[in-house]
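Q: Got a minute? One more chain.
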Amino acid sequence: IYSTQHEDKIRNLATIAPVIDSNQDTTVLGNFSRHLEPDRMFNSIGNLPSEQLYALFSTLKPFKQGVNKYFNLVENIDNEEFVQNFLRVEKWLYDTPPIAGETFRQWITDIYQRNLLVANEMKIGNEIIDLSRIKIPLLNIVAEEDHLVSPQCSASLNDAVSSPDKRLMRFHTGHVGLIASSYSQNNVLPKVGQWIKARSQ
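A: Always. Here it is, folded:
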């Protein structure tokens, strides 16, 4: 969104599983967001506490995100690399500040419920967010097994921008696996680094 207004300040744009075309999002989270009543919710709680956000994400895969991950930890307690990676992911999951209620309300309403972003009709203040104004090099990173944002929802960005240099990278991992995992360290980050380096000379 920022790059549509300030392209002169950005050399390259790399996105990770962005929510672009919510009509293409078939996840439980996408369906939940389309049926949420944000006004009622945020008039009651104000900002969205990080604990509620984490609880919501955990309920999407209750066994895997609950009991199973601790069983795996016990089974691999002597594997230092496994334990360190487990702790990295846990820190990343819990290290979330509260989300401003008005920001979250607009995100739910404009992107998930009205699908304004991909239609180039979303506004920030008085400014229209037009994705076609993005002409800088784009790297869009998508997880094929993402349970939070459907790959096709994210991939829509490549069709929406005007960048002559744009690439879609698909990885066989989940949402968290794109960032905080040994898979990411071995497969995702090296390729992303190469892409950025080639365009940062």
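A: The domain at 2-48+99-198 is CATH 3.40.50.1820 (Rossmann fold).
Q: Perfect, thanks.
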